[in-house]
Prior knowledge:
- The structure holds 2 protein chains of 2 kinds.
- Chain A is an alpha/beta fold.
- Chain A is 41% helix and 13% strand.
- In chain A, the strands form 2 sheets. In chain A, strands 1, 2, 3, 4, 5, 8, 9, 10, 11 and 12 form a 10-stranded mixed β-sheet that branches. In chain A, strands 6-7 form a two-stranded parallel ribbon.
- In chain A, α4 runs antiparallel to α14, α5 packs antiparallel against α15 and α7 crosses α18.
- Chain B is globular and about 95 Å long.
- The relative contact order of chain B is 0.13.
Amino acid sequence: MKKMLALLLAGSMVLSLAACGSTGSGQASAPAAPAASEEAAPAAEAAAPAAEEAAPATEENLTKTQQIIKEAEGMTLEELAQKAIEESNGKMFYGVGNSSRGKSALPLFIEYLKTIDPSYNMEFEWQQPKNNKIFDQLTADSLKETGTFAMTLIQDGNQIESKMVQTGVLDTFIPKDWAEANGTTPEEYKGYLPLQTLNKVFEYNNTGSKVYDNVWDFVAEGEHGLYMDIDSEIVGKNFLYMLTRDDYAAWMKEAFEKLSDDEKAYFQPVITEMEADAQDLMLGPDAAYSLAWIKLWVESYNAQTDDGPICSTLVDASATDQFGLLVYSKLRSVEESASVSVNNINVAAYDDGYEGIGGYGYCHYLFVTDNSPLPWTACAFIAYMTCTTDGFSAWGKDMGGYSSNPKVLAENEEIYHHQTGGMAEDGTTVEFPAKNDRGYEWWTTDGKLVLEDPEYCASVAFTVGSWIEMLSKYSAE
Amino acid sequence: MAQTETLKASKSVIRRNRIKTYFSKPHNVILLLLGIVTTFTTIAPIIAIIEDTFKIHPGTIDAYLTGRATGYSVVNYVDLFTSRMAKTNLWTPLLNTVYLAVGTCIVSILFGGIVAFLVTRTDLAWKQYISSIFIFPYIMPQWTLAVVWQNLFNSNKVTGTSNGLLASLFGINMPIWWCKGLFPSLVVLGLHYAPFAYILIGGIFRNMDANLEEAATILDTPKWKIMTRITLPMVKPAILSTILLVFGSAMGSYPVPHYLGLTTLSTKYVSMNSKYTGEASILAIIMMIFGVAIMLLNQLSLTSRKNYTTVTGKSGQISKIRLGKAGRYIIALILVILTFFTSIFPIISFAFETFLPNPGDYSFLYTGDVSNLTTKWWLTSENITENGMYGQMGILHNKTIWNAFKGTIFVSIACSLLAGTIGTLIGYAVSKDRRSRWTNYVNSVAFLPYLMPSIAVGVAYFILFSNKYVNLFNTYTLLIIVGTVKYIPFASRSSLNSMLQLSGEIEESAIILNIPWIKRMTRIIIPIQKSSIISGYLLPFMTCLRELSLFMLLCVQGFILSTTLDYFDEMGLYAFSSGINLILIITILIFNTIVNKVTGASLDKGIGG
């Protein structure tokens, strides 16, 4: 009956379609993305996606922007800056990104250009769309001959690959200095350019007596973690996809085995139930543990609009025993008051004896739009952010954001001392333990951070992804 | 024989004369021109969105299921209606949407209608204050009431968040159905649209001739019978108009169900759009089908609807019902308290929020210590990321906010002038010849965009104007086109309602005196129905100022104030969003006062005396 209804509706609308002609199908014919490399340098390792192999771009079929990028990849930052000054002096620069900090980085970039040419000036506007709208915006903008946006800082490797790179909307620019810092060259490096890896970590309000010492505690009976809706922030869904990869599934099993017998007895039936699904989805031997955790998580998390409100909730004294999975850096935004304090929360992975994953990490990638109105300026800005500590400072001031450039990462720590960010002024008293960022190395080893792999995410988006969508999300209705 | 020949006029002459006669009537010219324009602006986006449902979108489910990156397919329809996800993606949101729309209509008509009756037909005390304050919820963006609702009723125990005011000050934990889902959504939207019912129903109450009621009174008819047989039938057109306007608006509301956790077609559209783009467009079409269905129902009701001329050449006196010495104050007090919570409290709450150190941090209330307050959200003049500023400058120095403000004012004034003028002309022309099919067609087609949920109209225009030939994404032109098309019905309804009240004899007497059309309009018709016509300009202006669902897909945040406001709300930076709300409210009040002083009309003009 429903099928009939669907066909009937479709049929009736086909007639209207005839009037529309066959426009709009040409946009997907642009050159595909460069193939990914398996040998990215350490800091960029997690962020370099292994995109599908595509035909190598030749000189003849390069777009105007791609030709500029090719030329720019052979230049130093200073040379790029000169080009940017020539191109954008007195003009307006539009950037769009998933991070609001682009707005802070742009004035610094302009200041940098002014050190080369004091008469230089550029107006700018930085947009941060919500609800995954960045892809719609970039797609719509890409249809113009000359776009509005010069460049983008974007997350979610899965959608970037299928919607932005394969369709020719975005182009990757690898700064020469960045490649050198990572022990490679722009020609050799084949992934996207990551600005940084960010982590989202489990945090819980400690004003009550409850302790979360195992990742499975977050999906125990009656728990409702605060989490951005996976349909509005897709990297949250990517995290769930990643849990099904063999290595992370093994971590989930390992954590499960550390639970008490009573706790195990509670989760075991769900794990057993998931074994068939894991087989159907052609996942590895431990994936049933991951699927069980994902099922319990999706069916229990309390969806929020952003990490900001989650953080504001958790640091309030009244949020007793609440927890969330949120961007670590949000803690920096908390202003101490009578009822609000960073000391009202614990970072779960920092607790002694905590078992299992501490959170997940994902990348912010930088791209030049293929119809960029200011391609040289975009390249220079990208190089500035990835190759200088000042350029990265808009993010570098925060804990929980780790530059993909090893040099910048080290310099940044020297300047901002995130690893002792929670110490009092005397340098010995621990004032805010949660603010002592243990660093990228720690998080990706002891902290058991699940790192986003765009290739893996893309491969399970319509298998594990559809399975997740079948789950009944928790709703307070 | 010769005489017979001279009497015989050729067909072409007859046709020419007919055309000449037809175009000699200004309302026919208006109908023809605007009929063509509205046909294009309504039909073209619908065709564009229908096309999108068949199109294959790279990186989405249709590409995955067909194995192709381009081309056309019916796979989106098949998958949406028949897959295992049909209940989650289609049927449940659809049902919730209908419940929400119906519930909102009931709440708004009951609340707005009763207050309109009390203000216009009784000797209620403090009318002017109640009348002015009652329209405030409509001035404010709809989701801000939802945010206020959350701030009031959320609790750690029930909603799993930090405590709202009620929980933290009095330890009261409201049940979950009160805090999240359908109930709060329909109450919030109902309160938001109650001023609609108030203005439309109140306008009729105020203008209606009391002769019929007085005649009934003389004939000793009981009061309840006068109410049910005379008064209510007279306001029936206004009630139907309210339903028409509110149903589609509630259906297409995105932010309120989004904030209050109700899954509707609008929220589903947004959540499905990334991976199920084509299927999401089908949801938009389903919303549009509801719009068309409502329009057809309206047509049916129009054919059976009786016409009431309520304003005639003779003067009508309204007899006021006496509520009693104490009654008029008691009822007024209840209304004052109610409107305090729907109108004044949110404003106080917005103002207070802009001085809190952290979003929702009410430490000052517990401690009374002023160090728990801050002016950083207003005065910060540096680009800093510390203390929750996220690189934003304080509201007074924030270029993004003030540029968005300028953009909003520009779009609102343009939409108001265009929609107000076109709508008034359509209303006038339609009232002159209601029996013609073309008239009914123009009336319906001009009204259709309003019945279509805002988000669906936004989607349709986004698709229509995002191609390589015409790309108006993120331009004021696009916003003005869409806003005008969407808001013409405000003016056409308002104008039509008032023109229908106007007895034909008034204009006819001017025609006999050979007074030109322009003069008839500017000297007779517009002055008589000034308040309704000005409403036709003010409503689009006000609505446009804080419109989100319609514009959210058409521009980036920071382009206009509502998208900027929503951005800050989503980010949890309530100080900024509250500050913007205050700016909006003050702006609307200033404009309302200016219009009031200059023209003597205002939104609630006349209703509250």
